[in-house]
Design brief:
384 residues; 52% helix; 7% strand
Length: 384
């Protein structure tokens, strides 16, 4: 790496702060670096000290090398594209959530690489004759086959499915409820998917499948946001969104295996939605598209809901105690999936990351890192 360049550091620190819509006063109050010193650093008049740089990198949820090394991939390009297209949608807390999500994706990708993880390769190339409405179902069928799902088999953990093909999948509660999910092609981590944990558990399954379609078909867009159906921002004519919806529907509910019920009633609607682990709304649209029902029956199916108590999150299974389930859900709201937490502790046990780096990876201080280790039955290696 070349010598320290204060102007490069200043430019990238400015970008990091502006992308999270933060004032220098807020950064100063949160980091303890006085505003006058921040102004000097952001003007490039002086380089920050090592401690100041580490404090700011940690605050912005960035690798400190992003601010020092011009040879690293441009760290702000994708989020800049995201906010130029959809910036008014994201609150400051959502911008923070997105940055922490990308930080987790980069750590996950790095640890997977260092630990020699192998993914199931999946590439779908539609023919020039395939229309958007055909591409989704074809890709869904091809992926189900690649992952070994036979016939009407229901993928119980779709998050595990998409991680198997190399996608980085995280869930995080966003303040803006109309956002169902987003996709970013990260220069280091690759395909990154964020699902809004504010959504219903079954809806999240559909959202992650929808975002997986964007990873498969639309990675050249670099970044995209998906809105909930019914939102003022939802575009019913967007062919890419329609294709992603068809992919998600066919992946979760293969058309050829949808139930052929002579006469639907509310109890059957709930039973089948629960069996397929989808919302009654998604079930009704899938059946309509497959021409198994008419509009009146679709309306009947959508009129009922699977009880929330009957929906089990695969990353907070019901064999845990109520306290453990609630704590895991709290961590999931922050993006810390069981898969990611386990990966970090495994890397720590192998000596790939220190106890301090483990805490950074878990977005936690020492006390909370210890608490998370107990929750997941893991241990922290004592450092001399």
């Amino acid at each position: 790496m070349s010598s320290i360049n204060p102007k490069l550091i200043a430019s990238r620190l400015n970008q990091a702060r502006n992308l999270q819509a933060l004032s220098t006063e807020t950064v100063s109050a949160d980091t303890g670096i006085v505003p006058e010193r921040l102004a000097i650093i952001e003007k490039g008049s002086e380089a920050p000290s090592g401690d100041e740089l580490l404090i700011l990198a940690n605050y912005y949820a960035r690798d400190f090398r992003d601010f020092l090394d011009p040879s690293r991939p441009e760290p702000f390009k994708q989020t800049d594209i995201l906010y130029r297209r959809h910036g008014e949608t994201f609150t400051p807390s959502d911008r923070r959530a997105v940055q922490e999500f990308l930080f987790l994706c980069e750590i996950e990708a790095t640890l997977q690489n260092e630990m020699g993880f192998q993914h199931t390769p999946f590439v779908f190339e539609p023919s020039s004759y395939d229309l958007h409405k055909i591409q989704g179902p074809k890709a869904a069928a091809a992926l189900r086959q690649a992952l070994g799902h036979r016939g009407a088999q229901i993928p119980l953990d779709v998050y595990a499915d998409f991680r198997r093909i190399g996608l980085h999948v995280f869930r995080r509660r966003l303040a803006t409820s109309e956002i169902s999910g987003l996709y970013i092609e990260h220069p280091i981590a690759g395909h990154c998917i964020l699902v809004n944990y504010d959504e219903d558990i079954y809806r999240q399954r559909f959202s992650v499948s929808h975002e997986a379609a964007h990873a498969i078909f639309d990675s050249s867009d670099a970044a995209s946001v998906s809105y909930q159906r019914g939102s003022s921002r939802y575009d019913q004519q967007d062919l890419k969104e329609l294709r992603a919806n068809r992919f998600a529907s066919c992946y979760l509910m293969p058309p050829e295996h949808l139930p052929n019920v002579p006469r639907w009633d509310p109890q059957q609607a709930v039973r089948w939605a629960q069996a397929l682990k989808v919302s009654t709304e998604a079930l009704s649209f899938a059946l309509l598209t497959a021409k198994r029902i008419d509009q009146d029956t679709a309306k009947l199916i959508r009129s009922v809901r699977v009880p929330v108590a009957d929906k089990v999150d695969p990353e907070a299974p019901d064999y845990l105690t109520e306290v453990q389930v609630n704590r895991r859900k709290q961590l999931l709201e922050r993006g810390l999936s069981e898969y990611y937490v386990s990966l970090c502790f495994e890397a720590h046990q192998r000596g790939l990351i220190s106890a301090g780096r483990l805490g950074e990876a878990l977005l936690a201080d020492h006390r909370e890192t210890r608490e998370i280790s107990i929750l997941y039955g893991r241990s922290i290696v004592n450092e001399l």
